[in-house]
Every structure is written in C-alpha cells, then in structure tokens.
Automatic annotation (TrEMBL):
It comes from the Archaea. Its EC number is 7.5.2.13. Belongs to the ABC transporter superfamily. Carbohydrate uptake transporter-1 (CUT1) (TC 3.A.1.1) family. It catalyses: L-arabinose(out) + ATP + H2O = L-arabinose(in) + ADP + phosphate + H(+); D-xylose(out) + ATP + H2O = D-xylose(in) + ADP + phosphate + H(+). This is ABC-type D-xylose/L-arabinose transporter. The lineage of its organism: Archaea, Methanobacteriati, Methanobacteriota, Stenosarchaea group, Halobacteria.
Amino acid sequence: MATSIHLDTVRKEFRTLGNTHVAVDDLSLDIPEGSFTTFVGPSGCGKTTTLRMLAGLETPTSGTVSFGDEDVTDLPPQERNVSMVFQSIALYPHMSVRENIGYGLKIHGVPKAERDERIDEAAEVLQIEAQLEKMPAELSGGQQQRVALGGAFVQDPDVLLLDEPMSDLDAKLKSDLRVEIQRLHQELDTTVVYVTHDQTEAMTMSDQVVLLRDGELAQVDPPKQLFDYPNSEYVAQFIGMPSTNVVDCAVEHRDGETVLVGPGFELSLPAGVDAPTAGRVRLGIRPQYLDVGSAGACRLSVDVEVVETLGTESVVHGRLEDGTPFDVVSDAVDDAVAGDRLDVSFDLADAFVFGEDGETILFGSERAGERSSSPAGTGGVTP
Ligand code: ATP
C-alpha cells in the first residue's frame, strides 16, 4: 500500500582521502502517499544519494527518513517494502522474461499460480506479453527496461524507486516508456520516486518535482508551478527548454518610476515592487513567451545566429546588441536565417526579475497590467 515519505533535515556526507563531501545537505521534504515525485538537477547534485537513502542502501549521516509514521532511517532495504529499478538494466541472462519478472515473488515464496497471474498483469500494462517466453538477449533495450520495471511492479511495493531508468534509451523509446511508466503508476497503489537529470521527464510525468542544487533543495512544486513561478534564476534556467533568457539590466529611477535598462530596451516596473534602488538586476524571459513583431509593450532586437526548425515551430538562437545569448521560440520565424535581425517583444506579464543574489523578486504575471513598458523598435525580421 502506498505510503507517504518524510525527510527531516537529511544529510549525507562522504569521507574520502581525508576530505568530507556533503552530497545531501539538510534536506527536508514531504512526498505525498501515492504521488509521483521526481528528483531532478544537474549531475552530482545528490539525486541518487537521496534515492539510495530512501531505499536503505545508504544511511544518512544525520536526519531521519520516515515512511508514514514509521522512522525507517536505520532499516535495511529488505525490511522496507521498496522496489528499485536502476539505469543499468539488471536482468538474469539465463532466465526467461517471465522468470525474470517473477523472480522477486519466487524468493518471497509466492505460489506459482499467483505469480503467473501477477506477471501476466504486469506484462499487459507494459505491453510485453509477446516477449514473456523469450530470453533477455532477444529483446531490445527498451523491452529489457520494461522487463526490469515489470519485476519491480509485480512486487506491489509501497514505494517504487526509479533511478534514471530511461537514460540509455533512444528518444522514441523514451517517449513510449514515459507513457508506460505513467500507466504503471495509475495501476499501482504505490508512491513513485523517480530520479532524472532530464527535465522533460520530470515535467511530463510528475505530480511534484524536487529540483536540487549542490545537495540542497532549490524548489519543490508541481511542474506547472515550477515553470510559472521559479523562485530563483537557477530554477528558471533549469526548467524549460530552451533555457530562460536572462539579461543583465541596470536599475534606474526616473520621476518615481523604477526602470530596468537592458541592451536595447527599457522596462518600467510597477510601483511597490521590491526592486533595488540602484545597481543591477537580471531579467528572465522564456523563449516561448516572446512575440515576433511589436505586439508586446517591451521591444528588442535579436541578431540571429542559428535557426532550428522543429516542424510546428522554430527555435532561433541569437544575441542581443551587447552579445547576451537570447533565444526565441515561435511559429512565425520560418523565414529567419543567420545574419537576420529579428524584432521581438514581450510584456511584463511574461518576465521574471531576479535580484543580485539570484532570488526571484518579481513574477511579472502577478503584476501584469499595473504598468507598461517603453517601446523601442518596429517588429518583424530585417535582413
Ligand atoms: P548523477 O546525475 O551524475 O548521477 P546525482 O545528482 O545522482 O548525479 P549523486 O550520485 O547523488 O549525484 O552524488 C552526489 C555527490 O556525492 C557527487 O559529488 C558524488 O561524487 C558524491 N558521491 C556519491 N556517492 C559517493 C561515494 N560513495 N563516495 C564518495 N562520494 C560520493
């Protein structure tokens, strides 16, 4: 039966050659019962170490891990009802797919008839019924990973831990398996914790996403909330593809107004915003929220360097006049080529403002309509 998970100031230090490395730094977190929670972040940020502490494969240096009301911090893996699937596919080569999936049940003494029933059910959900009597070597990588998932699924765990189970698969298999894993979660009464460095996986599958940075919690929220309300420049840049454009701006005060002055544009902030009275801030604008042309109140020009055509839309990689990298995603730039100057615009509602410490000080969407921006530019692509 699914369980909630609670981490209370969990810390993991590794000591090597006289050095202490903090892999997980006082992490406190609630994972709701039955949810699909994804840990995401760059390599080395502590995702796998956290997952291994949930599995009981690592013991925290300090802090506690609880499943429901039970403190499991010091319980070994076999005393937690947890199944884990790793990145490297671990199947027994001399056993058939059916035997591989049922192995965990067999060593727990589950009778053959019940085993077969549960294996057939798992195979149906994972669409590998036709492979049940084959040997692992006869399967593709994607099918093998489905078998590994099946082996975890049939054990009916309280907690299913998945550590980058798709990272060795190609893009098409990944997108198929993303759907299978979500289907599996719907079938299971289990709490799923998934680790990936791929934010697309995190955003598409999860009820909540835990973004880590250097072992610390950067933000935990449902995917849409994380996308719309990143609490820092780090989160805004990690979540979303291509990454959020971030532009350095000077803060100026004119006639009681706060104006952000960037390369080739100015943006006036609404009264009452807790912006610095002087100095610099960073302005964040998602590439998808830029309008090609002059429909938005704040206009700027992008020197086009590379255009990637994705079918329904194109990604323009370019630079602002001071050389700041700046990307635009739009279905209206089919004709743009390297060397063009692309005029784009945005509204305050589409922007974030980050302070010098990287924290978000303004979500434009919350202040939209309170203030407009000053125009500069015409719109459209100019050669
Ligand atoms: P990746 O995406 O590359 O797998 P990760 O976010 O899962 O990275 P972890 O594997 O949790 O990161 O590692 C976190 C940090 O702890 C890294 O700096 C890593 O080198 C270190 N680390 C992990 N395991 C050990 C260990 N057994 N001994 C020493 N250091 C370790």
